[in-house]
Amino acid sequence: MKSFPWLLLVLITWSVATPARAAAGRPNLILILADDLGWADLGCYGNTFNETPAIDRLAQQGVRFTQFYAGPVCSPTRASIQSGQNQARLGITVHIPGHWRPFAKMVEPPVALQLPLAIETFAERLAAAGYQTGYFGKWHLGESGFGPAQQGWQTALETQGNVVPPRVDASTPPRRTAEFLTAKAVEFIIANKDRPFLLQVSHFAVHIPLSTTPERLKKYQAKTPMPNYPSRPEYAGLLDELDESVGTIAATVDRLGLGANTMIVFVSDNGGLHREQGGTITTSNAPLRSEKGTLYEGGIRVPCIVRWPGVAVAGATTAALGATVDFYPTFLELAQAAPPSGQVLDGVSLLPVLRQPAATLARESLFWHLPHYHHSTPAGAMRQGDWKLLEFFEDGALELYRLSDDLGEGTNLAARFPERTQAMHAALKAWRKDVQAQLPQQNPAYDPARADEFWSRKTVTVTRAPGSGRDADAATAPAAKKGKKR
User: Fold this and answer.
1) CA torsion, points 443, 445, 449, 450, in degrees to nearest 10?
2) pLDDT tens digits for 436-459?
3) pLDDT digits (tens, 9 = 90+) for 265-307
4) CB contact set of 239 (below 8 Å; sequence gap of 6+)
5) Which domains can be identified in the chain, with CATH numbers?
6) 286-321 burial string, b = 16+ CB within 10 Å, else e?
7) Which candidate, 32, 30, 31, 41, places its Cα nearest to that of 292?
């Protein structure tokens, strides 16, 4: 009888400790999302003007992807991350609510105004598996009633802009958003350090309008520009703020002894924007072609780095074709969480290439659907191995590139390889049918004189064309200036 209390204590200790040990096998997950950060903007991707020591250090400690893909604009990518689905399935094919050209050759399909609540996000699946979930920053997937708090994020705070508005934080002077989001992230990590957690930090940086602190602006104004790169001090300073945030979050994880059991993912939501409103040059994605809002590589190929000490090979690069739809199945696998019932997942787990960077992923093709006017005309695209096909819906033009030989997409091989072009085009059309992608239609109101006018979906009035220095043909659009609906 004397031994019973001791035995009971052992049994109680074992029953408490066993779930804790099981939970310890499931890593903490941190996803840091940059906004409009281009593939060529980081030091670890070859940039010598912008200083990104923390992100570069993350690459030294983990795996850096050289062929990782997002959507061409922000809302589609954010939808793909949360849902694990290609954005064409959801009808979120451009930024919400977006803009359109009412007198262009084609009428764009409608854009879904929010991520449907029926979609189970990866946060919902991980919360059900016992994770604490926290979301801080830009959402851009729907307004009131359709925010992160309604999609499985137990702790959620939305922000917009590079300066925190008073309704979110009343500090005087106003705090920089990157600093504010970092503080919230650190608080969340500390509060949940003894249990598995999922954290997403969605920065507004380096989105326009560009701004930074006076000290950073002065620092980069004094630097020698990088040859063949815009070298904007405001852009570099804003990226510097983002980099400091990444460094602080990683350092917090390490200081708390959580490094070996925490995966940190850093990625951008689309390619870099060449010009801000007003026409001032912002950045360049060279050697990639074009920019955000297009399906050329400059619009969809993005930086992505994954750090997980002991699992992701330190200092390695991988040429595997990864995409933002892959985060959902990767996180499910790591969290030992059940997949959503009846919900298609278009991605694959990234774990094989984190462990063996020379490996490939279990996919044949990647697809994109941009049936809108943005920095290009409505188009679709697919990638299959080294080959990439683009289809432009206005005139049916096809472009074929072999990216292994032509990273800048300068030589259209469609006429030289007609069989491959036809086969890939057939595959692209079959995919669109499978996901029920909505296509633009011929516009009965087409007016060549006004075809370049951009109108705001929110105000239903003429607005500036992306990257332009003036309202699109406003002088020739008296009805538009009055806000007349058509």
Assistant:
1) -90
2) 999 999 999 999 999 999 999 989
3) 999 999 999 998 778 999 999 999 999 999 999 999 999 999 9
4) 37, 41, 50, 52, 205, 206
5) 26-361 (3.40.720.10), 368-441 (3.30.1120.10)
6) bebbbbbbbbbbbbbbbbbbbbbeebbbeebbbebb
7) 41
| Residues in Cβ contact with 254 at an 8 Å cutoff, skipping those fewer than 6 apart | none
Q: Measured between alpha carbons, how far apart are the two ends of the chain, in Å? A: 88
Tens-digit pLDDT profile for residues 189-234: 999 999 999 999 999 999 999 999 999 999 999 999 999 999 999 9
Write down the pTM of the prediction.
Answer: 0.92
Q: How confident is the model at residue 173 (pLDDT cuts 50, 70, 90)?
A: confident
Residues in the chain, overall count: 486
Query: CA 42, CA 54: separation in Å to the nearest integer?
Result: 10
For the chain, give the percent of residues with pLDDT over 90. Answer: 86
